[in-house]
Design brief:
The structure is a homodimer of 404-residue chains. The first copy, chain A, has 404 residues and is an alpha/beta fold. Chain A has eleven helices and 18 strands. In chain A, the strands form four sheets. Chain A has an eight-stranded mixed β-sheet with strand order 3-6-2-1-9-11-12-10, with helices on both faces. Chain A has a six-stranded antiparallel β-sheet with strand order 14-15-13-16-18-17, with helices on both faces.
Chain lengths: 404, 404
């Protein structure tokens, strides 16, 4: 009997009505003769509400207690979905992450899965049950509850699909699949029938809607992932490994990430070890630095610019300003209101001309590029946030993404 | 170092402010040189809200899923109290019932504790931590989450106190202790400094504010229990085992239980096996029958009257009516609007005159007695609910409970 792992996000189960609707979809998959495991997130904005409550009590809550607190959101939704299935006459059981065998290290708030031991899940499937699993959470060897990081219910689903050797992992969300660009910005954006893991990874880390770690994991275990809508009956986008060859020389999509702030350290003495002395203290406080640009040195003095997530800007400045003074820099400047616009496609590997085409398209649309960064299958420009709609439309047109 | 187990109920931790206040009290006990374990209930009416949500989705939710759902209420509060202690600078850790070693059978919704294995609690205490435990919940050998029945955070606290050989179990609540009668009904009601387990058991099962099973457990393990206010600094009432002798010949208090409905089966043929055929079907559907009275048989026909909790009346009638027909009874009558009024005291054992004094006091207050039931240390009269205030005042006065 084929085994399918499904995952439903918070908006798909935001209230009692939607939970009943999701139960019908899960039941329908069961009716088709599949064994079904469904991973669920917390309802609506439960997680944010719990975080707010914790901060009312302690502005800096301990990560261990925070994890135990946040894990309740998914426990609630997994039990409610199981109850809704019972109401429809299906045999079903709700399991916590710990019960489903999600073993993690003890890095609270962003634990990594060290093993998946799904014996209980298998046993319940063999008994004929539909198994509903609380996403986002696991358990340490010491039986402490951990969470796997924001959006990590996707990760739970892919990890279970890998461990159970599922035929497919289906991610149900509030969009109908992966598009060549955000349809709100580009009306002629086209939904992709399929996409490779690496391309999806670049689209996801540049702002599209699936958690990057889960895509990596799917790639490692070669789990086919279908991203589709929980509200409409649509085919969605299949993410899998076998599409690279035929799609060579093709940009697959344009991605946007608006969560960008920039810090420039001015007049940095250009000598060995300076980069380390700037970035090590940031790593120590857990601030992730993204793009780094060091301008050409003029008379042994240089400007170093880097980007961080907007929420980290305040803390990053607090760390960097004293360091800048210490190393004899002239000062720091910060800027928000920036965004990353990226074109993504495996076809771009070692193929010249894509970067030039991108820069020309932006230039012709009158958009100034602040910084540039590239990976093997992605070219990213950092631009002023208010130019994003124009930039995305220009790029979508330049690379003819509306064409099949 | 002395070890104290405390328990805080839902009203004591209903919001962020109260949680911080409770954290101060827990911290104060720690400052006095005690090792402290604090058991907490769910915040305010969280449990009722979760039940309501479940019923929106399924009117008859599965007990197993219901337990996993309800257990989240106490997880939330135990983590928040731990965070509040951290905010005050105390080392603290929040543990689920499972982590605290509360092992139960798998009777969901009202599981019984089969073992308490508090190794983790002991380890955390030895590390210097204050340990906050989620009350009301445990775990089966199969790692399924169970709950111990309504009000069972008291039970968690007493069980932990017994297993850890604590010096004392302190129950913090919204009243200041155990009174000779409800102070709302009898202004001159007196707070008891101490009371025996058996007396407390009778007061509790007749409506006072501590879960009966937890008192039984305290009696078995001879755990001294202090019931006191979480809002005021007051001495409270100590429940312990050594007070029976000196308090002989004394009524200790008047208790009220308003949760009473009555069913009378009329014209029952008086032959062997009739009682079983009436009450076995009730037991099968889980309806607990309390007082049973069978009137003297006139011409081999009798009336059988019994009481049930009001919430069970509808279901009890549904079960009893067809049985009554089957056994040839004339019919069924139901009545609500009743209450139990009890006088309680170990001193009443084998001492004549208390029942007579009770009946006279009620008679002189013009109150009609519907049914009577007694235990070794309790006499209960079932009366019309609207006569409760007058009945309690009359009994409090007749037994001079206002006197020390």
């Amino acid at each position: 009997m084929p085994l399918i792992v499904q995952k439903y996000g918070g908006t798909s189960i935001a209230d009692a009505e939607r939970i009943k609707h999701v139960a019908q979809r899960i039941g329908a998959a069961h009716d088709k003769g599949n064994q079904v495991v469904a991973v669920v997130s917390a309802m609506g904005d439960t997680t944010d509400q719990l975080i707010e409550l914790a901060h009312e009590i302690n502005p800096a809550p301990a990560p261990r207690e925070m994890d135990l607190l946040l894990s309740t959101g998914e426990l609630v939704s997994c039990t409610l979905v199981a109850m809704a299935l019972h109401g429809l006459g299906y045999p079903a059981i709700g399991l916590s992450g710990a019960q489903a065998g999600v073993r993690t290290d003890s890095t609270h708030r962003k634990a990594r899965i060290v093993a998946l031991e799904p014996e209980r899940v298998t046993r319940e499937l063999e008994r004929g049950n539909i198994v509903i699993v609380a996403g986002f959470q696991g358990v340490t060897p010491d039986m402490d509850i951990t969470t796997l990081g924001r959006g990590a219910s996707d990760l739970t689903a892919v990890a279970l699909a890998a461990a159970l050797k599922a035929e497919r992992c289906e991610i149900y969300t509030d969009v109908e699949g992966i598009y060549t660009a955000d349809p709100h910005l580009v009306p002629e954006a086209r939904k992709l029938k399929e996409i490779g893991y690496e391309e999806m990874l670049e689209l996801a880390s540049s702002g599209a809607k699936m958690q990057p770690r889960s895509i990596e994991l799917a790639a490692v275990y070669q789990v086919p992932v279908l991203v589709t809508s929980s509200f409409a009956e649509v085919p969605g986008t299949l993410i899998h490994g076998g599409v690279t060859m035929e799609l060579r020389n093709k940009v697959r999509g344009v991605a946007v990430d608006r969560n960008v702030a920039k810090i420039t350290v001015l007049g940095v003495p250009d000598r060995p070890g300076i980069a380390a002395s700037l970035f090590e203290p940031l790593a120590e406080v857990g601030v992730s630095v993204d793009t780094i640009v060091q301008n050409a040195s003029v008379e042994r003095v240089t400007d170093v610019t880097f980007t961080v997530a907007r929420g980290d800007l305040h803390q990053a400045l607090k760390v960097v300003e004293p360091v800048a003074k210490e190393i004899g820099a002239r000062g720091c400047e910060a800027a928000q209101g920036l965004a990353k616009v990226s074109v993504v496609g495996t076809g771009m590997q070692n193929a010249p001309g894509y970067a030039a085409a991108m820069f020309r398209a932006l230039y012709e649309a009158g958009i100034n590029i602040e910084m540039i960064t590239t990976s093997e299958i992605r070219i990213t420009c950092i631009v002023a946030e208010d130019t994003v709609p124009a930039a995305v439309r220009a790029l979508h047109k330049a690379f003819r993404l509306e064409e099949e």
